[in-house]
Amino acid sequence: MRATESNIIKRLIKVTGVLLVVLVLALLIGLSIGSSGSSLTALWNGLSRSESSDSVLMTILWKIRLPRVLLAALVGGALSLGGLVFQALLRNPLAEPYILGISGGSAIGAIVGILLGFSQFPGITLTSFGASLATLILILGISAGQSILRKNALLLSGVMVNAFCSAVIMFLVSMTQDTRLHNIIFWLMGDLSLGNLQHTIILALFLIPCFVVIFMYANTMNLMLMGKDMAQSMGVNIRRANLVLLLVTSLMVSACVSQCGLIGFVGLVIPHLFRLFLGPDHRLLLPACILGGGAYMVLCDLLARAIPQQGELPAGVITALIGAPLFIYLLKRSNP
Amino acid sequence: MTVTPVWAQQHQVIDLLGRSMSVPVNPRRVVALAPNITEIVYALGQAQRLVGATTYSDFPQAAAALPKVGSYVHLDLERIVALNPDLCIAIKDGNPIATVTRLESFRIPVYAVDPKNLKSVMDTIMRVGILLQAENKAKQLISNMQNRIQVVAERIAQADHRPKVFFQIGIAPIVSVGTNTFIHELIEMAGAHNLAAGNIAYPRYSKEQVLGMLPDIIIVTSMAREAAFERIRNDWYQWQDLPAVKHQRVYIQESNLFDRPSPRLVDALETLARLIHPELFEDSL
Predict the structure, then answer these.
(1) pLDDT digits (tens, 9 = 90+) for A94-137
(2) Which of A185, B27, B76, B143 could bridge across to B87 with cysteines, CB 3.0–4.6 Å?
């Protein structure tokens, strides 16, 4: 037992070290490329502040690109972690906040919050959280009739709830001619373009405690993967673990959605990738998903900015272009 | 003691939303955050001050060559900042408030205007004229607009009827213009009755509703090209009992004259008046 403990710690250090480097590299690439041009030397000058005379470059680097890449990293990490937790709790490798319709529910809540004139924090985040919880209960309720873990029942309810949420969103958008909803179409596909430092910091203060709580349940998630009875016999309070993890994850997802809109499939791609390389141990998977998911999101957002000649794509377009085909592949493989 | 060069002098101004700010006395790097602002700056003869405009700023043609900073509803913050502007001119309806706030946090002054009908377009021309040291040109532009409006008004006063106009700005779904829009104002000034008058700014209609209102004239604005124009016209021409079809009065107009409150609203007014009351303009066509 001792040997495996220290073995885990060694692997943990190695994995987090490598991924931290990857994340930092992604952040640097994200910082160096933008719609006004891209140059690593400019970034270097900015970093070393050797040519502090160029205040335009400084503003672009520190006040426009930096908040944006940090926001992308945070949201990417949170959404990957969200996917990982859902997959463990529901014991379904295809569960993910977006696919299950939880993100769609949060979006409805956020739009209602916007229409009611609430501020971003805490107003819109709370309406968004309320709606995401309602959606979660709805999905679990629908699929609970048949044994709770029947994979297809769960996914199908998610798809239907998602379709319903899109319809409600379009209904709300059509019924109002509110100028505050002008940008809604962009936001619905995931938009990181307006990330400012203040919002990013508030989001970080909000998400980091969620990360910590989930970390505390790493071992519990490992045991739960072995089955309910097994976990209970090992002293896990399944009800409480489920409740805490679902609540915290929904809170995390709603905070991201109310800030950046609907970004899908990140919570599918990243946990799958790491399970492939690292195996099923959540003590490794949790930090890996946060760091790797952050780097992935930064790079997806970078593609969203870099691909179009004019303007930019919503970041959610890129994540869906990558994630949806992977989902289909995984679904096909799991149902031969 | 250091002397501030003339071009770097600042002064306090109040924009059309009543917000006070410090701007250069002689702004030399201006970014226009909407197509109609670009048109106003060009009309004032101050294009040399412009360093950037939004994606669909296509009038006058020279504006198309300006560096672009995204569309007016989805501005690209980084491109704006990269142009190092000493002044941005924004519109109240359309430019996202979040982007404006962030520009201001970078100490880039954003002067907001709210052109939404003929009167406020003239106000905007005057205020932007003062802002860009072109007050005389602004006065001249405005008096020219007023004269042309006066000419139209005198002719329209002789009209003996007000035809019912359905003004279509969206093809699918069919969208028209309510009372609180500049197109409504133009329709009424051009001597017609706007069938979509009402509280909703941009009401949607089903084909059935439009047919039921028996429009005398249908005017469709579209960015589409010739082939699409034909299709839209033929679509309405299926309904032979419609007064507008019986008298062949379905007109299609380029949308960029009608989709932005710019100095060209007067051109739009003259165009509309001639379409609606050709009998009053026979001598001047």
Answers:
(1) 888 888 888 889 989 988 888 887 776 678 888 988 998 899 88
(2) B27
Nearest to A136 by CA among A179, A182, A102, A86: A102
ipTM metric: 0.81
- Residues of chain B contacting A64 with CB distance shorter than 8 Å: 77-78, 81
CB nearest to A56's CB, from B84, B94, B201: B84
Identify the architecture of domain B6-143 in CATH: 3-Layer(aba) Sandwich (3.40)
Tell which residue, A186, A202, A204, A208, has the closest CA to residue A314: A186
State which CATH number among 3.40.50.1980, 3.30.160.100, 3.40.50.300, 3.30.230.70 fits the domain covering B161-284: 3.40.50.1980
- pLDDT tens across A208-238, in order? 999 999 999 998 998 888 877 888 888 888 8
Q: How many CA atoms lie within 13 A of B269 on its CB side?
A: 26
- Shortest alpha-carbon distance between residue A3 and chain B (Å): 52
Q: With contact defined as beta carbons under 8 Å apart, do B43 and B265 qualify?
A: no
Across the A/B interface, how many CB contacts are shorter than 8 Å?
Answer: 56
What residues of chain A lie within 8 A of the CB of B105, using their CB? 63, 196
Interface of B with A in 190-229 (CB under 8 A): 200-202
Q: State the DSSP H helix or E strand holding residue B205, giving kind and residue range, or none if neither.
A: strand B204-205
Chain A residues touching residue B82 (CB < 8 angstroms): 35-37, 56, 60
How far apart are alpha carbons B74 and B169 in whole angstroms? 21
Residues facing B11 on adjacent strands: B23
Backbone phi, then psi, for B250, in 5-degree steps? Answer: -105, 115
Which domains are seen in chain A, by residue range? 40-45+53-334 (1.10.3470.10)
